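TL;DR need structure tokens for one chain.
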Amino acid sequence: MRRSLLEIIAPLLLLALSLNLCDSADAANQTATFSPVTKWDRDYNIRVKPYSMGTATVPGIQSYAAGQVSEDWVILAGTVGGLHSFSNKNTRAWVFNPSSQQVWSRDLTDPSSGLSQHTINGLSSSNTQSYQRGNTLFITGGYVFEENLDNFTTYNDLTAVDLPELINWVKTPSSSLPANTILQRAGANGSGTDYVGGLFQVTGGGMFEIDGKTQLVFGQLYDGPYLNDGSFQKYTSQIRTFHIDYDHAAGTLDYSSAAIHPSGGDPSRFRRRDLNTFPILTQDAGGEDQLSAVALSGVFTETNGIWTVPVEISPEGVPSMQDPATDPSVFKQALNGYESAKLGMYSSTHGEMTEILFGGITANEFVNDPSSGNLSYQSSFPFTNQISAVTIDATGAYEQTYVGNFPLLYGPTGSPYLFGSDADFFPSANLALLEGDIIDLDAIDGKTLLGYIYGGIAAGSPNGFSTNSVASTQVFTVEYVPVPEPASFLLLGLAMISLAARRRRQI
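>> reply
TL;DR here they are.
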């Protein structure tokens, strides 16, 4: 939703940052250029502020799986260290309540959980894929150390977690975990021509459900210590779809109707991992809202560059991508290419879908003052505090905008932490959500708490590895703020009255 012409009286708010990077990109990337980036110019702003959890001890966790029941967040899996700290796995189940500023936890190794070591390992993995249906959190894959193998591996399991029962177990130290709270099912092994490894043996991909069908999007199979020459790495380069057959009361978990798109994968277009994937709403030819999905950017091309052209995913799980070689005008993402905290908003009135990408890792960054328009290509793909939005309008055209920054919070070295990578957004419990947990933009009226961002990597420098990055303990609020704010109108009115009074005195 654009601002009215009357609001153009504030020219600084509409300062253009439009820029086309024609010659600065690395040849290893999917494209040698990026699409223009413009200044955010909606009739609202997105504001991120630090939030205190009071006296509660907040853990640092990144690359986790998360669910939510009312105001309670559930955090499972992930690591408690910085970038690539896979040995520092999280074996605890955590429950956060930001309203009451309380945090509870319980170790999954507690004998009262009744869980096998294999299940505990699966729920301690890094970079799993997960989504929530009702009060059930479904999780696949993840990368973890397996004692039986004496090695790191990618897990081949589908896990179903009943969130209310898990929350009760975590909050009640004397209780035992009910037998059906956590159920697991291994995936079938591929033939090698359709896919390699197990069906769920994926890490660093995305997962969601559209029209009752689960889509496991891209990612990779990685066995062995990370970045070790003797390890095995295989990008899936495909989308795997299946129906989840789950009956909590009966204690059964299975899957059916598995399909692969495309069979064997297509690394020339879909060799992607650690990327932002999410459901989107668009309008069909009849003006009806329909749910599909998009995968943005991600790493790495076969020449070790970053991907730039989005992949659109049909409700059936079939991926497609416009060819930048035959259509140079195709949208090419410039900012926030790595998996980050994100939120989706949709206006059915305007047929417009917007995904806000909070920090993470980027191929381009505004240097010094963003208002200068000095957007610079960064071949090292650094961490960033900058926030962008990708908008798809009613015609299907893409646009990218610079929204703002995370607040400056400083680490022990005196440098600001860079947030967002492998973090999650938790919507406010009072918010109206559409299909795919997309925020109903048309239902928002006035300043509104959209939700919270928690965890992920806090990097102490743009190229911060495990030596100068940590798992973030910080919680942020994310607010919708109308533009101009009522206070701004009041100040403008007072200024005009004051100016008029001075002119009368001069006359």
